Structure formats: structure tokens, C-alpha cells
């Protein structure tokens, strides 16, 4: 659902997107950490098939987006055809799967640390692949947000969490996270390109196209290959209903979150989206710290200032750009 109109209306839409992304993904992060570290049932078995979460989320988000299109979208609106998402669907399948698998080898805060610089590969891929150019102040915002989250996560990382990991292996875990970032950079840049080539494409169209291909690729990987783990994951859920319930809630959070993410991309571009999602990771750590009763140190409050300083500066830049556009319209 792409919204045009006054600056005030777009500001309200941006606030709605931020609230939706933060609430959905903060809770999803809690569930993700639970599924990767908890031992289920009297036999205290771990859920080893974390890549299955990617398939489950793709299916739920596919159904969700189809329902939203039938309820709210205008049929035949001239959006991007579903086949245009095939390449982004590949990277969007492989990237998140690597990020989830990394939780077997490194802690959730360490994963946040590695993935907090997501904005940088998005900008690099957009520049190298599609020739998109950003201004110097936009790079300042990006480095302030990514740097603040990274330093905060580094300060918060504790060796006590190592005992919770299934297979501690920091080099492998960080490698998976950085590969995740590389694939995400291509995915987001491709989504921007599709949105620019097909301006009438709505958020739910993108969501449907991405998750359609994601479901196809994940089904092949999970059930079509000899080493597929789909049947083992389903059997685990049958034996441990608590895990199945956590997976369902995880997927629903992803559906709601993806809805707001694609709405953000359609209306504000991938850089604004990565700013919101990166800051969400920071807020997630803050909420975790408050809930566990751990006060922030002076250095950590410095990270808070970096992140929200960068975000505030980006909002100011967008406001200033909007004012220039409004002035040009008045003159014409």
C-alpha cells in the first residue's frame, strides 16, 4: 500500500511502519533466541533445524500477503509481475537461513553485532549493482547508527552465554552472518530496482512475490534434496508442541513485520527500511537489558546517543528534502 499526499500523512505512515517493525521483530527476536537455545520436553532436546523457520515464515507470509491483496489491493494495478522476484527470492532465501543458522555457533547479541552494519552493504550493493548514489550526510547517518549498535552489542556480549549454544564456533557463526549481510544487500537493492521500474507495485505485491519464490526454494531444499531436514523438523514439532507453538508465533511476527517492511520499502526506500530495522536491533537489546535489570554503563549510553543521533539526523535530512520538494511544487 503506497501512500502519497502531504508530508504530515507520510510522517504518520513512517511512524506506523517504525512501530510495527519494532514491536513485531523485538518479540520475534525473543522467540528466535528461545528456539535456538531452549531444550524442549522431558528429553531436553534442542530444535536443531533452525533453517526450517525460514520455510515456515515464507509460507505464513505468502498466505498473509495473498489475503491482504484480496482484501485491500486494487486488482490489475500494473505492479511488478511475480516472475521479476525470482533472483531476489534466491538471495532472500539463502541470506536469512544463514543468519538463523549462525545462532547455533554464536550468541544472539553476537549475531546482532555482526548484522548491525546491514545498512552499509545495502548502500554498497545499490551503488555497485544499480548505480544509485547517496549523499555524504546519508553515509554519516548510516555509520552513526551501525557504529552505535555495533559498539553497544560488543560491550554487552558476555561469555556466559556460550554454554547455551548448540555448537560454539565463532569464526563459522560470524562468517554466516557476513554472508547473510551480502545476500541481504543484493535483495534490498533488487527490491528498490523493482519498485522504481514498476512504481505501481504495492507492499503486499512485493511481499507475495518474495515469499512465493521463498516458499518454492525452501520446499525444494527442505523436502526435495537427500539431505533435506523438513520431515525431521515436522516430527520434532509433533513430539514437542511447545516448539511448534513458538514457531507459529515466530512466523506470525514475521508476517506482521514483513508487511511493515515492504510498506516501508514501497514508500521510503531500502535505506529507510534498514535504518529502522537496524535501530530495532538496538532497541531489542535495550529492552532486554531493562527487563533483566542490567543498568546501562556510560559507554553504552554513548552508543544510545550515536544511534538516535544518526536516526534524528536522517529524519531531519528527509524533512529538509521534503521542504525543498514542496517549495518546487508551489513555484510551479
TrEMBL record:
Which key words tag this protein in UniProt? Antiport, Membrane, Transmembrane, Transmembrane helix, Transport
Asked if the Swiss-Prot or TrEMBL record annotates the protein with the keyword Secreted, the reply is no
Q: In its UniProt entry, what is this protein called? A: UDP-galactose/UDP-glucose transporter 1
**Which species is this record about?**
Cardamine amara subsp. amara
Query: Which InterPro entries does the annotation name?
Result: SCL35B1-4/HUT1 (IPR013657)
Keyword presence, Chloroplast = no
PANTHER family assigned: SOLUTE CARRIER FAMILY 35 MEMBER B, UDP-GALACTOSE_UDP-GLUCOSE TRANSPORTER 1
Signal peptide as annotated in the record: none
Q: Name one GO cellular component term.
A: membrane
- Transmembrane stretches in the record are 12-30, 50-69, 136-155, 203-223
In the bilayer, the protein is annotated as: Multi-pass membrane protein
Gene Ontology molecular function: antiporter activity
Family from the record: Belongs to the nucleotide-sugar transporter family. UDP-galactose:UMP antiporter (TC 2.A.7.11) subfamily.
Localization per record: Membrane
Amino acid at each position: 500500500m503506497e501512500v502519497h499526499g502531504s508530508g504530515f500523512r507520510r510522517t504518520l505512515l513512517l511512524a506506523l511502519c517504525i512501530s510495527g517493525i519494532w514491536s513485531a521483530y523485538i518479540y520475534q527476536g525473543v522467540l528466535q533466541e528461545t528456539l535456538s537455545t531452549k531444550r524442549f520436553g522431558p528429553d531436553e532436546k534442542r530444535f536443531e533445524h533452525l533453517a526450517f523457520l525460514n520455510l515456515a515464515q515464507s509460507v505464513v507470509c505468502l498466505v498473509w500477503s495473498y489475503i491482504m491483496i484480496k482484501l485491500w489491493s486494487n486488482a490489475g494495478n500494473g505492479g511488478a509481475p511475480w516472475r521479476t522476484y525470482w533472483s531476489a527470492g534466491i538471495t532472500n532465501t539463502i541470506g536469512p537461513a544463514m543468519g538463523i543458522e549462525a545462532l547455533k555457533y554464536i550468541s544472539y547479541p553476537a549475531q546482532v553485532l555482526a548484522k548491525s552494519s546491514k545498512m552499509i552493504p545495502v548502500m554498497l550493493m545499490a551503488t555497485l549493482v544499480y548505480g544509485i548514489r547517496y549523499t555524504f550526510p546519508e553515509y554519516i547517518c548510516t555509520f552513526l547508527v551501525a557504529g552505535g549498535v555495533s559498539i553497544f552489542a560488543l560491550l554487552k556480549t558476555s561469555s556466559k552465554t556460550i554454554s547455551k549454544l548448540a555448537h560454539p564456533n565463532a569464526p563459522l557463526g560470524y562468517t554466516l552472518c557476513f554472508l547473510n549481510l551480502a545476500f541481504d544487500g543484493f535483495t534490498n537493492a533488487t527490491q528498490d530496482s523493482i519498485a522504481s521500474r514498476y512504481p505501481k507495485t504495492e507492499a503486499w505485491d512485493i511481499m507475495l512475490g518474495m515469499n512465493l519464490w521463498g516458499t518454492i526454494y525452501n520446499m525444494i531444499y527442505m523436502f526435495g534434496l537427500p539431505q533435506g531436514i523438513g520431515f525431521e523438523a515436522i516430527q520434532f514439532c509433533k513430539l514437542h508442541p511447545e516448539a511448534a507453538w513458538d514457531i507459529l508465533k515466530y512466523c506470525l511476527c514475521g508476517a506482521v513485520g514483513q508487511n511493515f517492511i515492504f510498506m516501508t520499502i514501497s514508500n521510503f526506500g531500502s535505506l529507510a527500511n534498514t535504518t529502522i530495522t537496524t535501530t530495532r536491533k538496538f532497541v531489542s537489546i535495550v529492552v532486554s537489558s531493562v527487563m533483566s535489570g542490567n543498568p546501562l554503563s556510560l559507554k553504552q549510553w554513548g552508543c544510545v546517543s550515536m544511534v538516535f543521533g544518526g536516526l534524528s539526523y536522517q529524519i531531519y535530512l528527509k524533512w529538509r528534502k521534503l521542504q525543498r520538494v514542496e517549495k518546487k511544487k508551489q513555484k510551479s
